[in-house]
Amino acid sequence: PLSTITDAELQAAVDAATLPELVPQRVVAEENATPAASSPTDAAQDAAAAERRAAEEAAEQAALVTRIDAAVEKRRTSGSRLAPEVFEKDDEANSHVEFVAAVANIRAASYGIAAATNMEVKRIAGRIVPAMITTTAVVTGLATLQACRLLAVGAEKHPNDPAETWRAALTGCANTAVNLSDMAFTQSFEASPPTRLPFFVDNAAGSTTGRAVAQSPTFTTWEELSLPHGTAAKDVTIAEAIAAVAARYHGLRVIQIVEASKNAWVYDASSGADARHVDFPLVGWTQRLLGLTDDDVAALGRLAFILRCEPPEAVRQACPNAVVNEHLPPLVVPV
Questions:
Q1: Judging by beta carbons within 10 Å of its beta carbon (0-12, 13-18, 19+), is residue 59 exposed, middle or buried?
Q2: Residue 38 in this model has a pLDDT that exceeds 60
Q3: How far apart are CA 19 and CA 14, in angstroms?
């Protein structure tokens, strides 16, 4: 009987059940069918028995329906049902790329195939290759046009002066922004090529960007100051950085160092307290002043410092009013 089915058996039957499509059928009564004759007593007993059976079946069916409803609800709320997901490679929160990479690498390991990184999976599964090829073709064509400008325009204006050839050619080069999804294409031209400025200027008129001191070395507005190549930047002390700047950049005497992004004072030669920590690592001391963790510093990749400097004594002797140009490039230290 149905009442003897266990809950586990019932749950398994519900989980495996598939309902066929309902197809209505018409029942046709047989013609000339006549019921068999029976006595009044037998008919009453049969009716009573049929009524009891109907009541029992109704009760049993009601109990079974209740249990089936409970099993169906448990299946619905158990979370075991699968729902389709739309692959989205650009949403890092859904872990779609990570899942595909994990499954692909398990499969690859089974056949001795090299594992793929998440970026490779994102590129292949996201079908980035067509977009990359299209964009690359556009950028390559634009770069070639600018190269033709460099070779033709500059050489035409200054055939005998290579430096002026490049300077004139760069003046006409364009910066192009392309967005293929929106079919947007814009170009902008640099207002002027990088300006060359003197390190030392004559401050007789009260200007730190005025007339250049005679035979002053120069820099461009596109340059950055840096430590010697191969220097372990994180271990360089403030004193060593000051000495390196003086050695590489015409005897500049650093008197103040300011971290550029937060405008935080790192070193001031006129401060007795700062003079005591010149042997501290420049990067480590800056990290401590700004409250940065090692991960924060690693994420930045580099630190930029604004320097206030004085000219060396030799320049001062040649021009008593000499000062360092206030547009001196920042000192950039990789971390």
A1: exposed
A2: no
A3: 10
